Here is the input.
Amino acid sequence: MNPTTRRIFIARSLAGGCAAAGLGLATPARAAAHVEETDETAVALGYHHDTQLTDAKKYPNHTAQQRCAECAFWQGSATDAWAGCAMFGRKQVAATGWCSAFSKKPG
Here is the structure.
């Protein structure tokens, strides 16, 4: 490829990318999906979006004060309504949720 052709190719590529972005054709950043209570992992861990809905007979060690936002696996800040969790891969859990993997944050 000679230098003139290369320059033309780069210029056209840049122009095409700018045009696609201007027309909304560029792929937007997407927020991570929320975990559904019916997801296989959620069912296996007894996850609920609301800690109050946890089955006390099935999970006798659960307390109402245990929430995802208080768990060591929580990957968000204290003010986030939803954030990542090490137990659920790329999906987000509710701050008010709970699952059987709950582990109190140290400190």
